[in-house]
Structure to design on (1126 residues):
């Protein structure tokens, strides 16, 4: 197995790790977004979806474990790469003018760190109920956890909306670069398929709109509390 | 005559000389090869190929170059291509035809046996380069493509876009790198050879300066190969790289090696003209442009300041078409160069300083359309625009001749060994294959033939004759003496502490050489140069400014040493040009012409002029190697 | 034209170095950038100061020796242009210009604007060749190479090894250089026998030299004076992954013998 360790430690291998783990998280992000879009389906639909997810413990726990593992690998690998990349240029330029790189690309480490903080915040908010405990554990009429109401209450607060807006924006930016890069990194990019370069920016728009649509609807009072 | 100029040409018919010679040569047992150490100076096509191939055979090789990597040797700048008698085009090419064209193109001043061997090996070169991964141009069916070049009626030039030299050099560099990794070549980049060391008349090593640390060191070997290129930079402005210099060959000359035909220089007609006194080098534009471009100057001197578009056809002098109706704009390099100079000397040159002629594509664009012209020459037009800021699709190009290649070099015998046993010379640094004029696409061919296929044989023959003893130690008194001499010279340069830059002297020398010993030479001009150069040299040693000392990375000091050598070498060049009372190839003596054409004197000058060092205060002695032509009949070239 | 030029001056590898400001007077707009530095050096010599050291040789854009970061862009940032081909007409009279060496840990500064690029040579020595001894080659036309393939090999082979890609990369990565060399050989049939071994060896040597990693910014592609495309990096990534994770006959033999 020394060949595998050698591969993972190599520059190209490290890129592959970033691409594969990143890609898995992008898939999760898409699924997660689709889930939340069910807010537009009303309280019953959303709470049914939420309780369906909670009931599948055989899937839930391996998925959670897998996600955590992927997240940690992505993070550790990123930290290692950033340190190596910094070391590769010990003396900085007095004047450096980027020509082709994007802001999204150049701020990957920064947006990554913000996303890390956001993930903790998000988990504390909706998974552990530490942020707005007053809205957590409300039951709905069917004895289910009323995720719908929790969601609506959360984003009726403009400050909370602002936090999510900023975080999702940065997340989308992070993915804009990441989702454009993976084909190149895995060696699948080819001039015959030039559209692959647009995958990242397209995904950025889709994710941003998809994630922010339900909270925005709440803020604009399109999605309302049950009975309101 | 005091030096031995036995060329050791094998006997027998010309087609069998090389084969016979290879069989007759002594061999070194594979197990013994590692006991021999060989020093190679230069890492271009000739030096790099020699170093790699000798290492493949099992010898211990040390290779030195002044650039930061062997991949940057000036062979890299060759554009057009490399000739080979493959006859892939089925157009009547053969080894004998390539041999014939090269001897004739050289205006009968090369050695027949060497040229024939070059033509024989040309075919192997292409095979070797293809195997190494050189991306030569291909036809759609996958076979190698060819283009035509000057001086030949067959299509035998192989090419890789306009970067053939680069691709061939990268092939050589890859092979060399493989041997470096294998530990059989030790590479010393950013180093400069400052002296050759001889013991008992044999070359046994070199003194090297590390250009980064300034350290002087001695390196001993069983044999030394010089592949250090040509001396075109004696003119300051040339198409050569800025670092190209005569130092290695000139210092070997001072240690006893004969210098042959230094006055044979090639001046290429299509270069971008000088645009001011700040200019540091000249850029070549491929000769192929003359296929579609028409060369002209205004008829009237009063018109030279006008815009080209404002000068009507009646007022234009298409002088090449007028003077050489059958060859027109495609007449050979030396003729085209001299004709351009004549127009400019007549006050009808265009552009800054009146040193330029028009190369006009107006008619070709009108005839074929801009797209067609762009397809053929787009990259060249782009290069021209980048340098001059003018768009050649709209205004005619301005071109002027520039020094491009030097046919002269250290004298070598058939084995590529100089008259100093153990000192081999390869590529542009030697004199043997191109006579008085080199044909296009022949320089790359010669460098690789010398390095891949000739030196590996002749070197073995020399080493086998030495016996199995170790090389002379680099602590030998001769090395210590040479090191001392080198340091003293560096100290002296640093101690001058004058006010004038090294470049200012180099420019001045270049100006003298170009005006007095350039495209057209006269007894008067050469005599004037021979008076002016020693004076300039004297001023150099009194007024040059070299700051920074010799114990660190000091580019000014590097340059100063090279210019000091050019200041001596230039004098020898003018002397050679003065005593060669004939015109041949690139050497045009105004006194020797018939109807404006070069007039060769085969009765008195059918020889290589080999100069022998006699001490700093004495004139060098002239030795002669007679040249005989048994296979190509001596004849006059005509282009009218 | 007159210019204010800020130049990095550093005595040797141990010196800390600093930017020094010079006024250059009387520069001709047709001069190349290097000729402008020649003029500046003449002015320094006249004042009895040491000339600025900078690498250059062919001055026609092919040797790859010249290497300046000008106003934050390697070779000045004009398309398909090396520093030696950059002319002063692209600058304005009175302009301020910053001139710095390539900045990378793997390219230590030797003096002023000159850096040591031997790391590139080490990468090539590790495997950047096709093993073919002189004399062993078959006829040049024995193996046909489709024109398109030869053209693409040539696109990659146009690399002049200047190091602008490393200088431009925010991470100081050498991947465009290494991948260009690999792509040149791997487009050709001659390069196939050693393909996997070569890719592994060169990537390993690149990593050992201390270059950074690729983050897909493509600054290298923008800076490359020979227009080498990032596509070569994708090809290298694919080849390296295949070579490392796949199996090869020579490896199984080696293990069997061991």
């Amino acid at each position: 197995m020394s060949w595998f360790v050698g591969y993972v430690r190599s520059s190209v291998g490290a890129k592959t790790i970033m691409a594969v783990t990143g890609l898995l998280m992008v898939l999760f992000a898409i699924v997660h977004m689709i889930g939340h879009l069910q807010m537009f389906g009303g309280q019953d639909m959303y709470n049914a979806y939420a309780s369906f997810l909670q009931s599948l413990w055989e899937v839930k726990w391996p998925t959670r474990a897998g996600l955590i593992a992927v997240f940690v690998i992505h993070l550790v690998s990123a930290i290692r790469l950033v340190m190596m990349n910094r070391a590769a240029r010990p003396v900085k330029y007095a004047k450096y003018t980027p020509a082709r790189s994007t802001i999204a690309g150049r701020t990957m480490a920064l947006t990554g760190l913000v996303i890390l903080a956001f993930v903790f915040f998000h988990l504390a908010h909706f998974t552990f109920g530490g942020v707005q405990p007053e809205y957590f554990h409300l039951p709905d009429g069917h004895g289910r956890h009323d995720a719908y109401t929790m969601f609506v209450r959360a984003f009726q607060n403009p400050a909370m909306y602002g936090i999510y807006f900023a975080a999702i924006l940065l997340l989308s930016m992070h993915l804009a670069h990441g989702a454009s890069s993976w084909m190149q990194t895995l060696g699948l990019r080819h001039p015959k398929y030039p559209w692959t370069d647009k995958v990242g920016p397209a995904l950025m728009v889709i994710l941003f709109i998809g994630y922010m649509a339900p909270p925005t609807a709440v803020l604009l009072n399109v999605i309302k509390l049950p009975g309101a | 005559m005091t030096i031995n100029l036995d060329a050791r040409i094998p006997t027998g018919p010309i087609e069998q000389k090389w084969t016979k010679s290879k069989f007759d040569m002594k061999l070194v047992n594979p197990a013994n090869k590692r006991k021999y150490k060989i020093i190679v100076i230069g890492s271009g096509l000739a030096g790099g190929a020699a170093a790699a191939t000798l290492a493949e055979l099992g010898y211990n090789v040390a290779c030195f170059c002044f650039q930061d990597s062997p991949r940057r040797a000036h062979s890299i700048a060759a554009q057009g291509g490399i000739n080979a008698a493959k006859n892939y085009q089925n157009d009547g090419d053969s080894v004998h035809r390539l041999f014939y064209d090269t001897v004739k193109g050289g205006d009968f001043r090369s050695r027949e046996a060497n040229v024939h061997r070059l033509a024989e090996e040309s075919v192997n070169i292409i095979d070797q380069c293809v195997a190494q991964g050189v991306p030569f141009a291909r036809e759609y069916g996958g076979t190698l493509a060819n283009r035509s070049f000057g001086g030949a009626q067959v299509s035998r030039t192989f090419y890789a876009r306009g970067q053939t030299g680069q691709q061939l050099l990268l092939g050589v560099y890859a092979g060399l790198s493989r041997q470096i990794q294998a530990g059989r070549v030790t590479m010393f980049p950013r180093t400069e050879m400052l002296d050759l060391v001889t013991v008992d008349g044999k070359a046994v090593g070199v003194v090297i300066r590390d250009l980064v640390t300034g350290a002087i060191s001695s390196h001993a070997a069983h044999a030394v190969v010089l592949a250090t290129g040509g001396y075109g930079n004696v003119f300051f402005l040339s198409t050569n790289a800025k670092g190209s210099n005569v130092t290695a060959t000139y210092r070997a000359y001072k240690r006893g090696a004969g210098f042959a035909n230094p006055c044979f220089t090639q001046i290429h007609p299509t270069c971008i003209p000088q645009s001011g006194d700040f200019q540091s080098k000249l850029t070549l534009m491929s000769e192929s442009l003359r296929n579609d471009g028409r060369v002209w100057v205004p008829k009237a001197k009063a018109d030279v300041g006008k815009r080209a578009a404002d000068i009507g056809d009646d007022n234009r002098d298409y002088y090449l078409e007028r003077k050489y109706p059958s060859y027109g704009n495609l007449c050979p390099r030396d003729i085209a160069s001299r004709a351009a100079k004549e127009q400019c000397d007549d006050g009808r040159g265009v552009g800054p300083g009146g040193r330029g002629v028009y190369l006009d594509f107006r008619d070709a664009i009108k005839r074929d359309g801009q797209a067609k012209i762009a397809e053929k020459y787009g990259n060249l037009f782009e290069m021209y625009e980048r340098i001059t800021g003018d768009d050649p699709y709209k205004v005619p190009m301005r071109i002027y001749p520039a020094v491009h290649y030097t046919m002269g070099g250290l004298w070598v015998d058939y084995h590529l060994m100089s008259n100093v046993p153990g000192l081999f010379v390869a590529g542009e640094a030697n004199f043997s294959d191109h006579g008085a004029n080199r044909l296009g696409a022949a320089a790359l061919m010669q460098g690789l033939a010398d390095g891949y296929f000739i030196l590996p044989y002749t070197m073995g023959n020399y080493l086998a004759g030495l016996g199995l003893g170790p090389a002379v130690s680099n602590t030998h008194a001769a090395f210590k003496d040479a090191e001392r001499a080198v340091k003293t010279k560096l100290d002296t340069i640093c101690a001058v502490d004058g006010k004038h830059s090294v470049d200012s002297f180099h420019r001045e020398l270049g100006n003298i050489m170009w005006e007095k010993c350039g495209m057209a030479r006269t007894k008067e001009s050469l005599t004037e140069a021979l008076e002016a150069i020693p004076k300039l040299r004297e001023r150099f040693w009194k007024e040059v400014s070299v700051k920074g000392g010799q114990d660190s990375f000091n580019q000014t000091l590097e340059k100063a040493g090279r210019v000091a050598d050019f200041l001596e070498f230039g004098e020898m060049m003018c002397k050679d040009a003065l005593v060669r009372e004939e015109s041949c190839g690139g050497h045009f003596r105004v006194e020797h012409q018939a109807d404006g054409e070069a007039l060769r004197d085969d009765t008195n000058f059918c020889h290589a002029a080999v100069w022998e060092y006699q001490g700093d205060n004495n004139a060098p002695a002239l030795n002669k190697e007679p040249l005989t032509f048994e296979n190509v009949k001596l004849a006059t070239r005509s282009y009218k | 034209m007159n210019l204010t030029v800020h130049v990095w001056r550093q005595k040797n590898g141990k010196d800390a170095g600093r930017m020094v400001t010079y006024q250059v007077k009387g520069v001709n707009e047709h001069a190349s950038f290097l000729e402008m530095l020649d003029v500046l050096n003449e002015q320094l010599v006249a004042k009895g100061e040491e000339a600025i050291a900078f690498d250059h040789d062919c001055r026609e854009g092919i040797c790859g020796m010249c290497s300046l970061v000008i106003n934050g862009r390697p070779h000045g940032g004009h398309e398909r242009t090396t520093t030696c081909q950059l002319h002063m007409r692209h600058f304005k009279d009175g302009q301020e210009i910053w001139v710095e060496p390539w900045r990378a840990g793997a390219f230590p500064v030797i003096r002023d604007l000159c850096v040591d690029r031997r790391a590139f040579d080490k990468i090539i020595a590790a495997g950047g060749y096709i093993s073919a001894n002189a004399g062993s080659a078959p006829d040049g036309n024995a193996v046909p190479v489709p024109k398109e393939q030869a053209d693409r090999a040539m696109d990659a082979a146009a690399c002049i090894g200047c190091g602008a890609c490393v200088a431009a990369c925010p991470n100081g990565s050498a991947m465009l250089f290494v991948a260009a060399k690999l792509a040149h050989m791997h487009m050709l049939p001659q390069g196939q026998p050693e393909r996997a071994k070569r890719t592994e060896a060169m990537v390993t040597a690149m990593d050992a030299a201390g270059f950074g990693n690729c983050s897909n910014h493509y600054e290298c592609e923008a800076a490359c004076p020979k227009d080498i495309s990032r596509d070569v990096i994708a090809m290298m990534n694919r080849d390296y992954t295949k070579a490392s994770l796949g199996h090869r006959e020579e490896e199984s033999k080696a293990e069997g013998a061991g």
Notes: The two ends of chain C are 70 Å apart (CA to CA). Chain C has two domains: 3-111, 118-257. The beta strands of chain C are 3-9, 18-24, 68-70, 73-74, 96-101, 109-111, 114-115.
